[in-house]
Amino acid sequence: MSEPISLYDKIGGAEKVRQLVEAFYPRVQAHPLLKPLFPEDIEPVMEKQYLFLTQFLGGPPLYTEKRGHPMLRARHLPFPITPARANAWLQCMEQALNEVGITGPERDAIWGRLVIAAHHMVNQPEPFSE
């Protein structure tokens, strides 16, 4: 019996994950809710995201090999992540998925996992405003 094919392989592996990261971060840097959370030099963040998404989608465990267990929520606790910011992140990712042409059941599976992950990162309510 053969191993099931991972989402990573189904979408095109390393090349497609790299394209996704490169389509995603310009959107993040341009988004008024997200830009303040990220450093000016986005390259190290992009590399971490590439490592993480590779592993998250069933590819080689690059993130764990280089940085240890992902511990997503713990690593994001220093940043004020509100529901609006999680939704903004998802909006940027949706646009990036569109740009790089990830479609069909693979996209649906990836999207479902990303929605869960994004909402799991929320660590603050929206600021109160009158």
TrEMBL record:
Its cofactor is heme. Keywords: Heme, Iron, Metal-binding, Transport. GO terms for molecular function: heme binding; metal ion binding; oxygen binding; oxygen carrier activity. Pfam families: Bac_globin. InterPro entries: GlbO/GLB3-like, Globin-like_sf, Globin/Proto, Globin_bac-like_CS, Hemoglobin_trunc. Heme binds at residue 119. The keyword Metal-binding applies. The keyword Transport applies. Belongs to the truncated hemoglobin family. Group II subfamily. This is Globin.
